[in-house]
Specification:
- With about 130 residues, the protein is mainly alpha-helical.
- Helix content is about 45%, strand content about 5%.
- The protein contains six helices and two strands; from the N terminus they run E-E-H-H-H-H-H-H.
- It has a two-stranded antiparallel sheet with strand order 1-2.
- A hairpin with a 2-residue loop joins strand 1 and strand 2.
- Helix 4 packs across helix 5.
- The longest helix has 18 residues.
- About 10% of the residues are buried.
């Protein structure tokens, strides 16, 4: 008779994101939009969590502490994305220079566009009849 072993994986879900269980706490927290390495280190230091600890090694109480700290002190995921989108929309409504660049899909922060800027402008479009 065969037995199917089901490994119970403890999935930590913080701010609507499933954190990878086998990664270190500092790295796993960076999977949340709005939390980088520095913020992750600050959170771990504030709560006294070892930087080398893995998510699967944390207790439920520690995960709850992390969740509560992030909810109370930081703007992450949906709220942050919404706030950023609102700021860009405000610039576009004001018809400021930055807003016009956003609307036109061109670089906003003064980069050159004669060459490069392909990430913002998209794939190069050939111009018919143009020869050097």
């Amino acid at each position: 008779m065969r037995f199917l072993w089901s490994m119970e994986k403890k999935v930590a879900r913080i701010a609507g994101v499933n954190l990878p269980t086998n990664k270190r706490v500092i790295i796993a927290l960076t999977y949340i939009h709005g939390i980088g390495r520095t913020t992750a280190v600050d959170i771990a230091n504030k709560l006294g969590i070892d930087h080398a600890a893995r998510i699967q090694d944390l207790s439920d109480a520690e995960i709850l502490q992390i969740r509560e700290t992030i909810d109370s002190d930081y703007q992450v995921e949906g709220d942050l994305r919404r706030n950023t989108a609102m700021n860009i929309k405000r610039l576009m409504d004001l018809r400021s220079y930055r807003g016009l660049r956003h609307r036109a899909g061109l670089p906003v922060r003064g980069q050159r566009t004669h060459t490069n800027a392909r990430t913002r402008k998209g794939k190069a479009k050939p111009i018919a009849g143009k020869k050097k």
